[in-house]
Design brief:
With about 300 residues, the chain is an alpha/beta fold. The protein is built from ten helices and twelve strands. It has a five-stranded mixed sheet with strand order 4-3-5-12-6, sandwiched between helices.
Amino acid sequence: MRKTNFDLDVLRTFVTGMELGNFAKASERLGRSTSAVSAQLKKLEEQAGTPIFRKSGRGLALTDAGETMLAYSRRLLELNDEAVAAIQSVELEGWVRLGLQEDFGETVLPEVLGRFARAHPKVRIEARVVRNAELIERVTTGKLDLALAWSNGNATAHCEMVGEVPMLWVGPASGPQGWTVESGEPLPLASLEAPCLLRTAAIDALDRANIPWRLSFVSPSLGGLWAATAAGLGITIRTPLGLPAKVKPVSPDAAGLPALPSLGLMMHRAEADPDAATARLSSIVLQAAQEALAGLSPQPMLMRA
């Protein structure tokens, strides 16, 4: 039986279109015409020997085989890119200072460090997992080379938007969260110390909805906030990224809480033209962040390609 060899160029188009949520955008990013992208997707289905897409409304969604194909495509491309980087950049050396939000410390950071270290063992990384305000300050003052941080509406000199992340009300995983708007009591709000973008968003949403609140717990660290929320000391506000098992999202409709906006995620760089090691790490962090965002919700509807 003849073995099938998937075309990595086709897989890259497939993954790019899924991550962008639109194959028209993928064609622009990859420098191809929409007809060329269409031909590549047709080739992928032919190689797979089964439908990858199904009709869904005016667009397309993935079949079960398509979901499996997407997962393997990401792994194949990651290994390919890692091999290329290792072969072409054997001499890559230096020191890169990376900053991340606490939400990414246990999710994105291990993957990024492992992927980078395998390809560039001679490069040393100093990773700092701190609050948003400190990340921005350290990038602008040159104390960090890269930082993945929440957007506060202010752009640094060299930054790009990674994506939008929904904000959630979060309560304890065991048992009910213990507060509803019908109780008439002020909402017990657990929060990080100010300044905190999510704390501000929570207070603004509650004030607009005329829901009374009180600060029931304030923590300098995310670990402390999770512990207090899990213990039922209050309801907090975070994103779906990095939620531990001891807490869970609170349904706004069930509790009478206001809907929350999304939060922008930004990649900040200290230099417009960073050195090779920093540029490579930036690329890996960006890819890992995009993969994390892609896993937050069902695959988006896609254009007819």
